[in-house]
Amino acid sequence: MAPIVHCLARQDIPPGPLMSVRVRQAKRRFETPGVAIEAIAPAPLIRFRQVGLDIGGRTIIDGVSLDIRGGEVVCVVGPSGCGKTTLLRMIAGFVQPTAGTVTFNGQPTAAPRPDVAIVFQDYGKALLPWRTAAGNVALALEAIGLPKPQRPARIAELLALLGLGGHADKYPAAMSGGMQQRLQIARALAQEPTVLLMDEPFGALDAMTRQHLQDELLRIVTDRGITVFFVTHDLEEAIYLADRVIGLAPNPGRVAREFDIGLARPRDQLATIEHPDFLRLRRALFEFIKAAES
Fold it and tell me: Domain ABC transporter spans what residues (predicted)?
């Protein structure tokens, strides 16, 4: 029998977040004369193991086991009250499980981390109204201790990245909802996060603005190798964004289904959503939600 050599990836893939993107979901064999080479994915970045949460004698989450790999976009769907946001808060270190473990790079998520950023749905409450756009981004740079002389260039870079280059001196009240959400994302990226947690960030936006922000999000996280945990009620949004969609069932919250998306990237708002596989997945998710709600 040929010997087996295990490797993480080809040698021409540099280490770092992009390596995780390129080797995710990888378990492939390469046959060479006399040697079978097996490439295996790296250890998960975030790991839930038999996680439970009891509050006031009521079980909110029960037996959740889930792996999230570096560079992966994972969307979470399910009926209201099934624990989607609770899982997000566990990753953030805001909520501690009463059973099981949640780990980040092998370490318990005991407290908030500077390399984990959160984008909320309610941008109106998330942004500081007395600070300009530049001032809101500066808040994150202050928190991570970036020297003051380096901040203006970094702020300008981030605002330009989100299409807000000409709005640095505007206050949130003078900006549209889409602009405010772009600003919240810019502030989150200022932390240079490894993981971006997003709790229905586009739910309050109109359809066209939501589509533009979906595409911008995919472009940014792909370029930077950021891992995304994205909570949404929009099934089409989940399919469009994700590498995997996790379906939760309620009472108590638990992982009921996982959907591997497998749609080609980069994705397109017209071609992707008209693809037969997209339509098949949409139907499967719709049937899952309908059954979970019954």
Answer: 46-275
Q: Which of 1-10, 29-38, 75-84, 244-253 has the weakest average pLDDT? A: 1-10
- Give the 3-state secondary structure of residue 160: helix
User: 88 with 223, same domain?
Assistant: yes
Distance CA 195, CA 201 (A): 15
Q: Tell me the Cα Rg of the chain.
A: 20
Residue 204: the pLDDT is 85
pLDDT of 70:
96
Give domain status of residue 62, yes or no.
Answer: no
pLDDT of residue 41: 59
| Domain, as residue range, for 280 | 68-96+105-293
Kindly state whether residues 80 and 9 are assigned to the same domain.
no
Q: Which residue has the tokens 């500077």?
A: 114
User: What's 224's domain CATH number?
Assistant: 3.40.50.300
Q: Which of 194, 203, 190 has the alpha carbon at shortest distance from 72?
A: 194
Nearest Cα to Cα of residue 236 among 274, 190, 187, 185: 274
User: Per-residue confidence at 124, pLDDT binned at 50, 70, 90?
Assistant: confident
- 26: pLDDT strictly greater than 60: no
